[in-house]
Amino acid sequence: MAIVEPTLPGGFKDYLPEDMIPRQKLFDGIRTVFERFGFVPLDTPCVERSEVLTGGDAEFQKQIFYVSQPGGDKDSTALRFDLTVPLARVIASYGDKISRPFRRYQIGRLWRGERQQAGRYREFAQCDADIVGVAGMKADAEIIALMDSLMTELGFDKYLIRINNRKILNGLSEYASFESEKTNTIIRIIDKLDKQPWSEIESELKEKVSLNDTQIEKIKAFTDIKGEKQEDILNALSKLFWEISIAEEGISELREIMSYLDAMGVSRTSWTIDSSVARGLGYYTGPVFETQLLDLKEIGSVFSGGRYDGLVSRFSKQNVPAVGASLGIDRLFSAMETLGLVEKKKNVLQALVLNFEPKAEMKVMQIVSILRKRGINSALYQGSENTLKGQLSYAVKEEVPFVVIVGESELNENIVLTKNLGTREQVKETLDECIERIIKG
Amino acid sequence: MAIVEPTLPGGFKDYLPEDMIPRQKLFDGIRTVFERFGFVPLDTPCVERSEVLTGGDAEFQKQIFYVSQPGGDKDSTALRFDLTVPLARVIASYGDKISRPFRRYQIGRLWRGERQQAGRYREFAQCDADIVGVAGMKADAEIIALMDSLMTELGFDKYLIRINNRKILNGLSEYASFESEKTNTIIRIIDKLDKQPWSEIESELKEKVSLNDTQIEKIKAFTDIKGEKQEDILNALSKLFWEISIAEEGISELREIMSYLDAMGVSRTSWTIDSSVARGLGYYTGPVFETQLLDLKEIGSVFSGGRYDGLVSRFSKQNVPAVGASLGIDRLFSAMETLGLVEKKKNVLQALVLNFEPKAEMKVMQIVSILRKRGINSALYQGSENTLKGQLSYAVKEEVPFVVIVGESELNENIVLTKNLGTREQVKETLDECIERIIKG
Q1: Which among A189, A268, B28, B426 could bridge B419 via Cys, Cβ 3.0 to 4.6 Å?
Q2: pTM for the predicted model, two decimal places
Q3: Has residue B391 got a pLDDT over 80?
Q4: What are the residues whose beta carbons fall under 8 Å from the beta carbon of A132, sequence distance 6 or more?
Q5: Is A77 helix (H, G, I), strand (E, B) or coil?
Q6: Burial class (CB in 10 A: 0-12, 13-18, 19+), A440
Q7: Is B38 on the interface with A (CB under 8 A)?
Q8: Quick one: what percent of chain B has pLDDT higher than 70?
Q9: How large a percentage of chain A has pLDDT more than 70?
């Protein structure tokens, strides 16, 4: 039989144990915080009906992966590319089986057929937390408080949650007197202000959306809004959008969120109002949030979300308000690696029981089973090294904290030799003493 | 826009929170035991090259799900249908980056396009633990000890791990003097002996594989082997397969496993030798194991495995011995439900803070954030009920253990009213006392 190349398709990736051990710790940490905020887990299939995923929108054609059986229909089912559409489907289909408000989290894999580039994968993991069924801003504030808690618990200290409201951006056309159809293009242009000088933004506004000088001046006044304090920014926005009701509504929602964040003790240094935040234009209907790592601004937001009150409109005529946020695990994990927040571990062993003395063969098997019964992650050495020395160097290479040694003399005396590979200390002792030592660590 | 039906493709399934909460607990329990036995987590993509998955074998055509992008190659990539082939690919491709022996576990989803039937899904989860790189029977014994520990820790008390060796079955043709090509068919026939009377088995052996009376008599003597004690069965097998070297080798391996299981304290009541166990014929090369739930025999094995020394032969000329076992989560979980081993929970909340007194609005937000900082899973009531009574019945319906109530009088006195919904006891107390009460549970 011909040998098959053991390779992966482009854009897919293995997680070997030394990546997977800290990744799993990260997932556990995320779950703990989500549950502390009262979110419950939901799981949905990776494969959905294509129509459910795309809503018939041809734009998704570039990104989608279809799933088919030989001879079957080639495009009726596909791999999910987000966790929000499956949530909407669940909300639309289970009715009363799901009580509202529904605070759900979901951790899962997604697939997107993006053009391959460094650090971008076609299969990746995402963690979403959403509150479904609450129209008021308390829910938005809770999502922001969750983002803040999670960033802190994961060990980040320099981050900024930037908050805006789509309703303010939707007021721009009235404020600067341009046709509302131009709004999205204009937002996309001014979104680049952190990378480009104003002169370039100005030319783009002239060329791409034919704004005149008065209009451009108004846009400039909007983008110039800065402030040390959240109140200052909100007051400046209020002044600018005076009597533009949609924007005023947005500003007042942000004021409400501010008061709730204060009540929940979310530090004012963790977040700000930033009127340049837009977050994927078509989707959101109210407040939007993103999280910037201040030492790694170039990687973009690691934890983002917002309010999207049209959640289930694809599936039902119900009106269901919702707000939530998504955490991209791969980007977050790689940021944590860069910032030294990841402890790499090659294995999960607390103790390795060596196995070099033929007379002690049954004894060491018994010992390893006792260690396990006492809750110690442990294994019997079963590699190809037959000597104490060879097995010890394996343990050192694998960074096992403790080795348990039973040679002929230990066997005769019914004791073990416990060796701490960190301190290089070694002690002859009873198995009970050894177990206590390993548990203490 | 037309409304899209919020339905799943046939054979796929959602896990709503009340299923997902205990499922997650199950996954956590499995991980804990796997790690206690020194297994490290590995993760591989759900999508692999089709050639990697099938090795070019056309037989998989019926089961495979291809993954393709619009306009792309339709069958070059597919969803994985087991976790063993990805393990083999990893072993073949990372060389020294993976130290041997490699004890890895993997928990993941698989897809198989099986004909739809009740309780069978096309997407399902599986947990595998394998030891790669150990030829000796100690590894097989460790896998069996792992199976035994896990079954016990999950709460099963009536189960039986049935152990056999493919080498014994491979000795059948020499023992009963039939052509070795008939072995697989004959095994498949006698495998039905627990459901069919001997007379039917006998006719099948005559009709399907043309065995004569002497041959059939020999087969009967083999299937008649029973025994209270493991030794008795092994001795009977030894007598039957006298000087049939492949079978003798298999029997001696089982004796070795028995001595290791004894050394590891695995109770003799947890396992037996059962010469009818065959486990997917082509795959295994040595000992095979399966786990029967004695109160639910009809569902088949929930945790099965064996030795397969040809692991990486598809990808390389290396000879890599391996032994492992797979746990099918859906079957296991449904068995646990039937046996009352699953605690259904609708949510993860330890406390719900009610929110009915407008004056206390900020106070209750503050309280919920303090509870969370103290590690209590908690949420603020944000549903549509505005009264104490309405919010309380929501909490009762959701089975929340504690509610924290702040009405006008509690607000003025700077205390809270803690209500235990289990005991219906309620106490006015300070927030600190309330927190202590909730933590005690």
Answers
A1: B426
A2: 0.94
A3: yes
A4: A87, A91, A100, A101, A102, A103, A104, A311, A320, A321, A322
A5: strand
A6: exposed
A7: yes
A8: 98
A9: 98
Q: Which two tokens stand for residue B231?
A: 């030794």
Q: What is the pLDDT of residues A352-398, one digit of tens each?
A: 999 999 999 999 999 999 999 999 999 999 999 999 999 999 999 99
A67:B69 CB<8 A: no
pLDDT of residue B118: 62
The ipTM is: 0.94
pLDDT given at position A281? 62
pLDDT of residue B75: 87
Q: Which residues on A lie below 8 Å from B66 (Cβ)?
A: 67-70
Which pLDDT does position B353 carry in this prediction? 98
What are the structure tokens assigned to B389, written together?
């009574």
Write out residues 91-120 of B within 8 Å (CB-CB) of A: 92-94, 97-101, 103-104, 109, 111, 113
Query: What residues of A are in contact with residue B139 (Cβ under 8 Å)?
Result: 382
Give the torsion sign (CA, B148, B149, B151, B157).
Answer: positive
Domains of chain A: 10-135+309-345 (3.30.930.10), 160-283 (3.30.930.10), 351-440 (3.40.50.800)
Per the CB < 8 Å rule, is B99 touching A377?
no
The string of pLDDT tens digits covering residues B58-73 is 888 778 999 999 888 8
List the single residue in A with minimal CA-CA distance to B139: A382
Phi, then psi, of A358 in degrees rounded to 5: -55, -35
Angle, vertex CA A145, rays to CA A301 and CA B379, nearest 5: 135
On the question of a cis peptide bond just before residue B17, with omega within 30 degrees of 0, the verdict is no
**Cα B70 from Cα B87, distance rounded (Å):** 29
pLDDT at B188: 87
What is the pLDDT at residue A74?
81
For A274-298, what is the mean pLDDT? 88
Please give the pLDDT value at position B116: 64
Which of 219-258 (B) contact A at CB < 8 A?
none
Query: Strand A40-41 vs strand A102-111: parallel, antiparallel, or unpaired?
Result: parallel
Q: Which residue type, as a one-letter code, is found at position B167?
A: K
Strands, E, within B166-319: which ranges? 271-273, 287-293, 303-307
To the nearest whole angstrom, how far is the Cα of B242 from the nearest Cα of chain A? 28
CB B113 within 8 A of CB B64: yes
Ramachandran bin of B346, using left for φ above 0, alpha for ψ from -120 to 50, beta for the remaining angles: alpha
Residue of B nearest to A56 (CA): B4
Give the tens place of pLDDT for each residue, A240-279. Answer: 999 999 999 999 999 999 999 999 999 999 999 998 888 8
CA pseudo-torsion sign B142, B144, B145, B146: positive
Q: Look-up: residue for tokens 């947990």?
A: B127
SS3 state at B94: helix
CB B84 within 8 Å of CB B116:
no
Distance to chain A for B253, nearest Cα, Å: 16
Choose the closest CB to B6 out of A14, A315, A347.
Answer: A315
Which alpha helices (H) appear in B241-285, and where do they start and end? 245-263
C-alpha B236/C-alpha A52 separation (Å) is 61
Say if the Cβ atoms of B365 and A263 lie within 8 Å: yes
- Taking the CA of residue B240 and the nearest CA in chain A, the distance in Å comes to 30
Q: What percent of chain A has pLDDT over 90?
A: 83
pLDDT at B379 over 90: yes
Cβ proximity of B394 and B381 under 8 Å: yes
Q: Which of A 118-147 lie inside 8 A of B, CB atoms?
A: 122-123, 131, 133-134, 136, 138-139, 141-142, 145
B304: helix, coil or strand?
strand
